[in-house]
Write a structure and sequence with these properties.
Largest sheet: 8 strands, mixed
Strand order of the largest sheet: 4-3-5-2-6-11-1-12
CATH architecture of the largest domain: 3-Layer(aba) Sandwich
Structural class: alpha/beta
Pfam family, one: ResIII
Number of strands: 27
Helix content: 40-55%
Shape: globular
Distance between the termini: 108 Å
Protein name: DEAD/DEAH box helicase family protein
GO molecular function: helicase activity
Strand content: 5-15%
Keywords: ATP-binding, Helicase, Hydrolase, Nucleotide-binding
CATH class of the largest domain: Alpha Beta
Number of helices: 35
Number of domains: 5
Radius of gyration: 29 Å
Length: 846
Amino acid sequence: MVDFSSLKRPEGSKPTLNPVEIFKKTPNLKNAPNDLWDGQAEALKGWHENRDKKDILVSLNTGAGKSIVGILIAQSIVNEKHQNVVYVCATIDLVNQTSRECNRMGIKHSIRAKQEFNNDYYETGRGLCITTYQALFTSTTKFKNELFPTAIIFDDAHVGEKLIRDSFTVTVDRTKHEKLYRDIIDIIKPKFESIGKLQHLNFTIEDEGINSCTLCPPETAFECENQIIDVFKQNNFRKHQDLFFPFLKIYDNVKHCCILISQKSIEITPPFIPVFSIPFFKEENVRRIYLSATIQHQTDFARAFGRIPAIEIKPDPNNDAGNGERLILFESEFEKEVDTVELCKSISKKKKALISVPSYFYALRWKGIATPPSTDDFSKKLEEFRNKASGAFIMVSRVDGIDLPDNTCRIMFIDGLPTGSSLLETFQHKSLGMANMYAAKMATRVTQLFGRINRGRSDYGVFFALGSDMNNWLKRPKNIALLPGTLQKQVLLSLSIFEQTGSKLKKSDITQSISQVLDRDQGWIDYYTANRDNLEIDKETFTEIAERENKLANSALAETKFMSMLWQNRIVDARDCLIEQLDKTAPVDPKLSGWLCLWVGLTYHMEGDDNEAAALYLRASARFSAHLNLTHKRLFQEVNFKTEPENPFHEKLLHELQAGIRSFNDYAAFLKARAKANYSELSSNAAEETVRYVGELLGYRSTRPDNEYGTGPDVLWEDARSKTLIPFELKTDKKTPATYKKDDIGQGLDHLEWVRDNYPEHKIVGFLFLGPDGSCSTKANPNDDMYLCTTDKFNSAISKLSARIDDIKGRTAIEKWALVDELGKLPEWQIRGLFSSFAGKKMKDL
């Protein structure tokens, strides 16, 4: 029995809001952290001083203790009497890991996993809740009404885009849902047949297309929405968890999605994330704190969360928490006799090695060393690996959630660039070659990979960069510039070592280098310490990257607004959000601009304006290879006129005339303006974009390979019908008279070879150096395919064409159609005729 008369009155105490003070008052429990690192304390102070801001990004180096920072911020908001504070993690493993951190500090909390809370702390407002992105964003989320969060901590915000997109993505796995897969194929087959692409679809879904995927025509979901919903119902989608939750999320908006097909699966997903359809982002009273590894640019953040953070709290550059020591060994610098798999097998007999692969297909070549664990056994097998003295562990298509610091592992083999698991990303990156759009994302993934076994300032390790894609990516200055500062310097230092040795590494050289790093050889330590900070990327590259990423971030913001409006069936408002970005994005990323054109075109199709839709689809096609499946208008007719386009320029002119007099006049004005370009006053980027855009205006698929892939010609015009190419190498920054040196010609020969390798079925009319008149060095050895095209000659040809189009503008309607039909068929304006107009002397004759 309780003697209530003996009890004292409870003493009220106001909990502290300062997160640093909260840490100091945590109980001295077993395994509790002794103190905060400087970077953690700085981050907490920075947040506390700006705690009223709605969107705050806290960036800390990988391994610098983000979770403790996030937990203390969450507890601070709980103490502020904000009852519902949610801490979101990427996986269940990380939920449990964050829970252990809370327990170490005596922080009360709930876990929401497997569709239930483990206690009532969150539900009663007495503690934060730790859960997953999946649980928060699912269509049946429990975080609503009285449990709606007033503050959310987004851990690992740098991977937020994938996690949020997953909640809007229905994946029909063929092995699990064979009948549903076939039913959907039957629905979309007529769309491919109508555009003459049925054979392409059959190739993709049968064994021949096992590693390929394709995008249905953009209007497919819009036109087939009811059929798609019906087959999901007929296949009892509610009984399958992998279908039920995401399909419920898009149920009312299937028509606004894109559909991608592969031999293994079908994916239905919006082309952009409708961020503002999510209450947690739409609601203004929610405070959002994003915890992220250090990121250089905000593009992917904007694409995931629909906003740029109000403030970013970053570590002091002199604070090196999370910055360990790394030696990177590039497979491209090994002798051909070096077998990296056998090398790994030899190493793993005495030491431990982590192996990263982008897919299970890649994992097959490592089967003699290790087997990837199943999803159910992953945590168990990883813990076993942590406790071993030797052996290997394979992680597949995973860049985070695995921490093996210090002696738990010091050697890592990175076999190929990390790629996304979605069909949308695979199609955009591999089929459409949207490298610029994915550059920042790839940099984040690469950074995360390098943080798996290297977690703190005193950590050290050896990393093997394997595969041509990984080696080439890491060697490009524009990519290195996207990495955090310390990793940039480590990549440059490692490359410098190979450059200085001047020869390929033997197996003995590699094993010796590993020993020098891991055995703490003083020569290595002295070299690393003295030289790491002496290398950096040139400022011009940083400036170009910053300009590109700023514009791409603005595009990302527009994309999320567009999709959110479309999700509400506000078609005109949606289009207004995106249409002004088309020309703003094109100079830095024409392929992303082409992707935007697709979905702006769809909005016109939804309103019945097929002429405008076709014009946008044509613009998109001009910026990609032949991988897009589009409904082109092949027959153009007016009252007394009918014709079918015979070539890309002919089709472009007809499209512009069909779109109306204003469109045709604008087209003429755009072409005239480019014919007056003063290339000597343009930056390299602007000059390349001008030449690319001229090619697009002429109806060709016009790209900038060097800008997109880091190699290849500056500009490439492709006539997809005749499979004919004109590569351009721009030398517009040279003074008149110019001297074309051995390096210029050597670069041209290299890029010419790239074109031949990547377009083996195409004919190259000739290779054009676009620049001032001048001479070619006697030491250079140009081949017979190389010609000089002066900027004056280039402008003159385009100006002549512009004048012909200007002559058509004032004619009667029937005269316009007849003259456009005639002009478009003239040989002088086809790709071979244009080359003849551009080409001056052969480079070897200068």
